[in-house]
From TrEMBL:
<dbReference type="InterPro" id="IPR012675">
    <property type="entry name" value="Beta-grasp_dom_sf"/>
</dbReference>
<dbReference type="GO" id="GO:0140647">
    <property type="term" value="P:P450-containing electron transport chain"/>
</dbReference>
<keyword id="KW-0479">Metal-binding</keyword>
<keyword id="KW-0001">2Fe-2S</keyword>
<dbReference type="Pfam" id="PF00111">
    <property type="entry name" value="Fer2"/>
</dbReference>
<keyword id="KW-0408">Iron</keyword>
<dbReference type="GO" id="GO:0009055">
    <property type="term" value="F:electron transfer activity"/>
</dbReference>
<dbReference type="InterPro" id="IPR036010">
    <property type="entry name" value="2Fe-2S_ferredoxin-like_sf"/>
</dbReference>
<dbReference type="GO" id="GO:0051537">
    <property type="term" value="F:2 iron, 2 sulfur cluster binding"/>
</dbReference>
<comment type="similarity">
    <text>Belongs to the adrenodoxin/putidaredoxin family.</text>
</comment>
<dbReference type="GO" id="GO:0046872">
    <property type="term" value="F:metal ion binding"/>
</dbReference>
<dbReference type="InterPro" id="IPR001041">
    <property type="entry name" value="2Fe-2S_ferredoxin-type"/>
</dbReference>
<dbReference type="InterPro" id="IPR001055">
    <property type="entry name" value="Adrenodoxin-like"/>
</dbReference>
<feature type="domain" description="2Fe-2S ferredoxin-type">
    <location>
        <begin position="1"/>
        <end position="106"/>
    </location>
</feature>
<keyword id="KW-0411">Iron-sulfur</keyword>
<protein>
    <submittedName>
        <fullName>Ferredoxin, 2Fe-2S</fullName>
    </submittedName>
</protein>
Amino acid sequence: AVVRVTGRDGVERRLDATNGCALMEALRDANTGIDGTCGGMMSCGTCHVYVDADWLAKLPPKSEDEQMMLDAIGELVELEPGSRLSCQIQVSEALEGLSIRIAPPV
Ligand code: FES
């Protein structure tokens, strides 16, 4: 699915992310500043993104573990209602046009 990604520089780009992959992987491989250091184990928080309000309800809800990791990085960076770990978002056709912003580094 093609997703719209606003970088830390405020510039929006379109990214063709492979369906079935974690969004984190697509963001990492496209050098958007997402590191995904833990590889999707919900233990690093370096995959934090802000999901546009319009899209938030279309994503599966956060697990307890995802929320715990977000709470932990919330000590370091600003959380927003759209804060999600991109390693927990699986790319699919249903996410065509998904709009996100890359959060500040942790
Ligand atoms: Fe580490 Fe998502 S990649 S928490």
